Amino acid sequence: MSAADTETGQPAWRLLLTYVRPHRAALFAGAALSLVTGATGLMLPLVARELIDDLAHDRAITGALLAMSGLVVANAALGALGGYVLRRTAESVVLGARRTLSSYLLRLRVAAVDRTEPGDLMARITSDTTLLREVTTDSLVGLGTGGLTLLATLVMMGLVDPVLLGVTLAVVAGAGTVLGMIVPRINRASQQAQDAVGVMGAALERMLGALRTVKASGAEPREERTLHEAAEESWRQSVRAAKWSAAAGNTAGLAMQVAFITVLAVGGARVATGAIDIGTLVAFLLFVFYLMAPIQNVVAAVTQYQTGKAALARIQDALRLPAEPPARPAPLPAPGAEPASVAFRDVRFRYADDLPYIHHGVTFEVPARGMTAFVGPSGAGKTTVFSLVERFYDPGSGEITLDGRSLADWDLASLRAAIGYVEQDAPVLSGSLRDNLLLGNPGADEAAVAAVVKTTRLDSLVERLPDGLDTLVGHRGTKLSGGERQRVAIARALLRRPRLLLLDEATSQLDAVNEAALRDTVADVARTTTVLVVAHRLSTVTMADRIVVMDAGRVRAVGTHRTLVAEDPLYAELAATQFLAAGA
Ligand SMILES: Nc1ncnc2c1ncn2[C@@H]1O[C@H](COP(=O)(O)OP(=O)(O)OP(=O)(O)O)[C@@H](O)[C@H]1O
User: Main localisation, per the record (predicted)?
Assistant: First the structure.
C-alpha cells in the first residue's frame, strides 16, 4: 500500500471520488462533450472524402461544404464548451476540498495545533488542493475517455486478427510491468515535493511572524538559507517526479514502436503463410497506430494521479488531526445574566502524554461575582487554568465545573459563549479596529461599541485615528501600541457581556493613567461578572476579593492580600519583589 492508502484504510481514489461526487453530473457532461468533440473530428475525413467524390463525379458540393463547415464550427464550439465545463468542475472540486479543510482547521483542537506547523497547514489548503484540479480533469477524464477509446480500438483489433491482438497485448503488458515499477516512484517524489512546500510554508510563517526580531537579530541570512533549502528540496523532488513521469511517457511511446515492429514481423510471417491477407495486416497496423493516443492518455492519467494522490494524502493527514465536534454558534449571555461560578477539584493535567504534568491536583472554588487573582512564579500553571476553563484542553483527571456543572457536560459553544477571554499577548487580528471589537459579538450595536470604547479608554485613540473605528490596524495589530492592543482585547471581551471574564494580565506595563482606568473598569465589571485574573501587578492583587497562590502546579494558599502577606511566605516574597516592582 502507498502512503495515501495506509492510514485511512481506503485507497486514494475513493477519497478523490468523495470530492468529485457532488460534481459528477458536470464531469460526465464535460467528458461527453470531449468525446463528441473527438467524434466530430473523426467525421471530418469522411465528409472530405465525400466532397472529393462529389467533385470527381461533377456533383454539387454545397451540401458537403456546409457539412464540413458545420463540423468545424461544432468541433471548435463543443471543444471550448467541454474544456470550460471540465475546468469549471475541477475548480469546484478544489473549492470543495478547500471548504472542507478550512472548516476543519477552525475546529482543530488546540492540542493538535500545538503539534503542527501552521505554515504547513496553510500549504495544504493553498497548494495541495490546487493539485486536485489537474487530477480531476487529466486523471479522471483522461482515464475515462482514453480508457473507452482504448477498449473500442482493442475490440476492433480483436475482430480483425486475434493472433496479432495477442502479440500487441503481450508487448503492452511488458510495458505495463515497467510502468508498474515507475509509478510508485512518481508518487513518492510528488509526496516529498509537497512536503517540502509545507516545510517552506512553515519556515515563511515562522519568519514573517517574527520579522522584527529576525531583523533585529541580524538573522536574515540564516532564515534565507532555511527558506532556500526548503525551496530547493521541493525543486529536487519535483524534478525527480518529472524524471519518472518522462520515463513513464516514453515507455508508453517505446512500447507502441515495439508493438508496431513486432506486429509487422509476426503479421508479415502470417501473410507469408497465408493465414491473413495483406489488407488485414495494413488495417491492423493502422489500429496499432490509433492505439498510441489513448494509451498515452491513460499513462498521463496514471502519472498525474500519482501527484494528486500525494496531495490527497497530505489533505487527509490534516483531516485526521483531532478536532472539536461541529457546533452551531450559541447565543451570548443576555444583558444582566447571572455571573458564573467556577471550581477545580483535584485537577491533574499535562499538555501531552510525553510531557510532564503541569497541574498536580489543583483545587479551588470561585463563587459567582467578584474578582479572583491568580498569582505565582512564572510557569506555576496559572494560564493553564484559563486554557482548561475554555476547554482548549481537557484535564487528565479531576473535575472542572462552571455553575456547578462539569465542563464535559457543557455544549462547547454555550460554554465559550458565557466566557470572555483576554490572552496575555492580547492578539489583534488584521482588519479594522471595529472588526476586532466585533469579533466576539458581531451583532453589537453602535451604543454598546461606544460604551466599551469609553470604559477601556480607547476613545482618545479612536479620535486620533484617521478613519476612527474603521482604521485598519495591520497584521496582528502592528499599527497599535502594546497597551492599545491590550485595551482592544479587553474591549472585545467585554462586548460579549461575559458571565465569566478571564483576564491574563500582560506582564508589560501600561502607563499609570491607563492602568488606573483599566483597574477601575475591571473592578466595575467584577460587580456584575465573575472575573478571574492572572495578576502581575500589585494594584490588581490588592483590589482582588480573593487571591489564589499557585506554585509548581498546585494551589498553595487562598486568601486576601492582607492575610496572605502575613501567612504565606511565597506570596509575601512575590509581593515584596515582583509585584512591588511592577506596581510601583
Ligand atoms: N501548549 C503548551 N504545550 C506544552 N507545554 C506548555 C504549553 N503551554 C504552557 N506549557 C508549559 O506549562 C507550564 C505552565 O505554563 P503556564 O502558562 O500555565 O504558566 P504561568 O503560571 O501562566 O506562567 P507565566 O506567569 O510565566 O505566564 C510551563 O512550564 C509551560 O512551559
Answer: membrane
